[in-house]
Amino acid sequence: MATPIIMPKFGQMTEESAIVEWLKKEGDTIAKGDILFTVETDKSVMDVESFEAGTLLKIAVKPGVSVPVQSTVGFLGKPGEAIPEITAPAPAAPKPGAQASVPARPEKTDKRASLEAGAPVVSTAPIAPPPQAPATPSLFRISPRAAALAKHSVIDATRIKGTGPEGRVVEKDVRNYLQQHGYDKLRISPAAKELAAKEKLDVLAIQGTGEAGRISVADVQRAIAEQPKPMSKMRQIIGQRLTQSVVTAPHFYVTVEVDMTGLVAFRAQLKEKGLPYTVTDFISQAVVLTLKEFPEANSSTDGKTTRWNSRVHLGVAVSLEQGLVVPVIRNADELTLGELNTRAKELADKARAGRLAPDEMSGSTFTISNMGMLDVENFTAIINTGEAAILAVSSAIRKPVVRDDKIVIRSIMKITLSSDHRIIDGALAAKFANAVKQKLEDIELWKLLTS
Amino acid sequence: METFDIVVIGAGPGGYPAAIRAAQLGASVAIVEKEQLGGTCLNWGCIPTKALIAASDVFAKIKHAAAFGITVKDATVDYAAMIGHKNKVVSQLQGGIKHLLTANGVKQFAGTAAFKDRNTIEITAKDGVTLIGAKKTIIATGSTSAVPGFIPQHERVVESRAFLEITKLPETLIVLGGGFIGCELACMAAQLGVKVTVVELLEDILLLLDPDVRREVRAQMEKNLGIRVLTGKALADIKADAQGVTGKCGEEILKADLLLSAVGRKPVTGALKLENAGLKTNERGFIEVDDYGRTKVAAIFAIGDVTGKTQLAHYATSQGVVAAENACGRKPHKNETLVPNVIFTVPEVGTVGLSEDDAKKQGRAVVTGKFRFGGLGRALAVNETAGFVKWIADAATDQLLGAAAVGAHATELVAEAALAIRSELTVQELGRTIHAHPTFGEAWMEAAHAVHGDCLHAPPKLKR
Fold it and tell me: Is the whole model's pTM more than 0.80, yes or no?
């Protein structure tokens, strides 16, 4: 009987993978160490070798189809050997159009099957760790008496290993468990026990701080406070997006110091004239101008293609109590400094009031994150997925610097460009960051733009 | 210069137990007291007032003895003799403290203590100045009556300490301040036949109590003792002369032989020279401490009234023991947080834990159960049927959160409630605990049943 070829698991997080290309055809003779096929994971394309010799009897999964890891993707054996039928459902729901995907089969069963058939023992492709028992957890079974005792004892019965039929937890198991865990020595105040029962906590997992380790209400309240709490949808989405970005886009960082002394003074002058530009406005304008010089920085990539965005939709990260939102100034390349100021203020107000429309929070092509008001020396930002770079703006801090071989006090602001190395190389990032710096330091430019 | 492991400043109900506890733990201990051993509690507070209140209770019982079939004719009050009884009790207890301190090897210094630096205490006495070294210091200087500036200085105007020194009761008395000190002394005087008026600026007397509890106290003070209680009113234009004291209360002019000012207490820190130790009092004049009794200076602890927490002798004692143990390097433990509160008015009050109002303010689902003494066989037998006990519990977990007792023996009854609440018992467990019959304590059991609506000795509540 043939042995299955298993889709290996390349990373902790990998749940599905697709075969890019089969390098062998059905009927080919396979030597140990031959590359059978290549696999596309989230990060890269990997070669999959055969750990055994034989004949490729069947290709069950065609290239380009995503299947759960540990699935059978083909069969190896002797020519003419029977190929097992594949009937059990896949452990993970296949993506649409993945009808050809092949479900997992526990390796053990197959091994045993081949032994029983008296066929030579041919090991299965052992690139993958031995497949575990079916991924779906087995049903927790407990007898009513055991459940009642566990409930009365205020413990988590699912931690108990059952010895009854099909692993059912029976009363004896609960009693043994309680004894093993020193339940008779547990000291807990009556009210603490009531509270733990109400909150469905396991009293054995609560640390008592009262006399002789007695668990008090305060201890239970501490345990309640330490219970995992669901993250807000907003935080979950932020987390997913940032994780996706960090995992897929290779970040690197370039920091330059901007001498803001002139612009700070100029801004004060403008303010006296009734023109309330913010530092972010100047930075936004400088970035928009720089993006015209370096179109790569206003692009996006999926890893295979790059796409240049003809328009600049500028995301400006705004910190809220509930999390972070990035309102988007559309067509920022068409706006004057004054218009940028007005639009940025509108969006920031809306963001704080929680009234941003969905299209005001999406579609940015480049993002600025300004922590200048938070008194930071320097920081790096994570690129918004789908963009090529993000500019992190730190506080302008008065410090000694060397000018014309003299030490003088200037307002220095660090800006750090995080770039997606797939699109932007170091030299380009350096040029970009310095171009922004030069613009911010060029007071004549701002005089022109505000006159 | 003699140096001690622990120096305690103040020998009141916080200081002397702290000194004894530290000595028990093997420390060399000194205690400094500028007046009398026992502090305010023993000399001018808890104990002397209880001696006088007990005497007035006996007189009241004699007057009401007819209900038991006992006729006593011509019972009279010799107030000077009552003061004599009080002084005898005080002096006996003072001797007791002195004996205990000496027996535990605590060196006693008479004089006023001040910090010379963090580890040096300067003791000023009549006969000179002594310097002692202190590895650790426990400040237990207590509090004193706060007398507002608008009250004239006159022999007819006294605060609680001076009130306990007078040997002849006035015929009429105005008590300014409806807190527990004012109310206790008002009840004591009224039971001895003084016509008493209590004036309280706030909306009610004994405002820390739940409304139902203070209503019970106020009703009995007014009805049984004939005390006039004026609330929500200030006493203005206070004048005192040889004829008496007058004050304007609203539209009315109040007149009396004596005015007792009982409007609060202030911490005693003036002589300590805290700045030499790097310590400061807070804006209210108290020395701030953490849960372990530590001040901001590592070598200095503070306990009792001067810390501005609950100003009660028994809390000071508990704080003193905790501070002594922590100062002696025992495994640090925190101050207790559950402090019973007892008021020796007529009727007495005892409370512990959360009041109903406080529990509700915490946003809990609160249930209460009440049982009146009138339903107790014992209370009827001894003719003390006024009052009730009440449990305050958490509806979600059945936990006992607070208790209040008002009526005869309430100050004794509260001990059971304190133990139950500190042990975090549930209402059900308290209700299942067998209480001896016939006693006043049965009321707790009945009130616990009442929380769940299954009280045996009260008719079922009408179903809505």
Answer: no
